[in-house]
User: Which sequence fits this backbone?
């Protein structure tokens, strides 16, 4: 079944197309590329699976740049290499970039598009669950700096987002489950009915039933489009999409991005944020237990290893991008399907929110 959404922002409007087998047949791609010169950016894992399909969809030869696989290549060196190759190919301002891959490829391609000759359009073809439900929509583009993740970037909206849920059949299972924490996040902050739907349809989701996945991706994109329409540059409501991320970013930084996938760290973060919300009196213990059960059923982690130093984690949190006036600001659950941003000064309370893996269990 065909599903389509329109994202409206101050800097433009674009469609998100969600359809199984879209990478085999997508006239909308040719229409958007029309008279422009397409240049595809992908990585060494994804290109053998999907590059030929995109080439044939375009119905004309398109040059491409293949990145090595990994977050560590979302950096200034590869930004520069791509720009060099585009210049060597004499690509002008009538060019359009196509990001074929997960959030790493999407963020880097988007940032190149935002900068190349002061900005050219780009198309997102996300191939991971995380990128299909989150990273490809909303125009956040970035590369990492040695001193911090996503520290160099721009808001630059894509011209089209093409989502083929069948891409998820080749995605490693751990990556798929990791993306589920971002799905659960939408239910927690914006739509309790969706949260209930996820619980009720969990087996179909975990078995990658195509229709169930399409519905799920559609609802996530719909919720994200709504948020981005209201607050494109994260001056307000968009910050809610960071539920659990203050905890997650601290865990990722402290473990040097080597122990947990981003969505796994977000899973621990969602649970920690719910514990904090419970301590603050917003949520009931049963809500916290219910969330823990759902994350565990998705085989996602909910606890940090006891070897992690809580003071170091607090140190990372004090450098979070959302902080203001020297206070750590958390997204907390205020009620079912509702969240808010709140400064929390009580370090003991924050430390207590980290669920620690108990080896005696
Ligand atoms: P990723 O891009 O590293 O992809 C995960 C792994 O899956 C990689 O090894 C990749 O090669 C492989 N892969 C991708 N699609 C595949 C497929 N269909 N079949 C087989 N293998 C496939 O990771 P991710 O989780 O998609 O993205 C993480 C990145 O996204 C981070 O850099 C994060 O900062 C960024 N991000 C951006 C936003 C945003 O709004 N811009 C939001 C969330 C995350
Ligand atoms: N992934 C959070 C955002 O796009 O704002």
Assistant:
């Amino acid at each position: 079944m065909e599903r389509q959404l329109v994202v409206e922002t101050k800097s433009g409007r674009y469609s998100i197309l969600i359809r199984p087998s879209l990478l085999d047949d997508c006239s909308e791609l040719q229409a958007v590329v029309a008279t422009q010169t397409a240049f595809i950016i992908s990585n060494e894992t994804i290109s053998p699976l999907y590059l030929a399909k995109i080439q044939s969809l375009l119905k004309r030869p398109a040059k491409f740049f293949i990145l090595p696989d990994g977050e560590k290549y979302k950096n200034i060196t590869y930004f520069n290499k791509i720009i060099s190759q585009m210049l060597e190919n004499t690509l002008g301002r009538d060019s359009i970039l196509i990001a074929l891959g997960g959030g790493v490829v999407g963020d880097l391609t988007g940032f190149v598009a935002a900068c190349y000759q002061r900005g050219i359009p780009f198309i997102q073809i996300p191939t991971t669950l995380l990128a299909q439900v989150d990273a490809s929509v909303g125009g956040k583009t970035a590369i990492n700096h040695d001193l911090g993740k996503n520290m160099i970037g721009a808001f630059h909206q894509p011209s089209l987002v093409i989502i083929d849920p069948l891409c998820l059949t080749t995605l490693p299972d751990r990556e798929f489950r990791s993306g589920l924490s971002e799905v659960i996040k939408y239910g927690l902050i914006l739509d309790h009915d969706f949260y209930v739907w996820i619980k009720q349809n969990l087996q179909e989701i975990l078995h990658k039933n195509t229709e169930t996945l399409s519905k799920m991706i559609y609802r996530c994109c719909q919720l994200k489009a709504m948020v981005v329409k209201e607050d494109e540059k994260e001056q307000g409501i968009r910050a809610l999409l960071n539920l659990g991320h203050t905890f997650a970013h601290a865990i990722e930084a402290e473990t040097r991005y080597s122990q947990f996938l981003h969505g796994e760290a977000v899973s621990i973060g969602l649970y920690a944020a719910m514990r904090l919300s419970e301590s603050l009196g917003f949520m009931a213990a049963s809500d916290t237990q219910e969330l823990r059960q759902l994350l565990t059923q998705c085989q996602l982690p909910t606890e940090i290893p006891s070897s992690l130093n809580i003071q170091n984690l607090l140190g990372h949190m004090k450098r979070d991008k959302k902080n203001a006036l020297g206070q750590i600001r958390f997204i907390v659950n205020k009620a079912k399907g509702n969240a808010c941003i709140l400064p929390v000064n009580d370090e003991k309370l924050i430390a207590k929110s980290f669920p620690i893996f108990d080896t005696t269990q």
Observations:
- The chain has two domains: 3-170, 173-357.
- The chain has a mean pLDDT of 95.
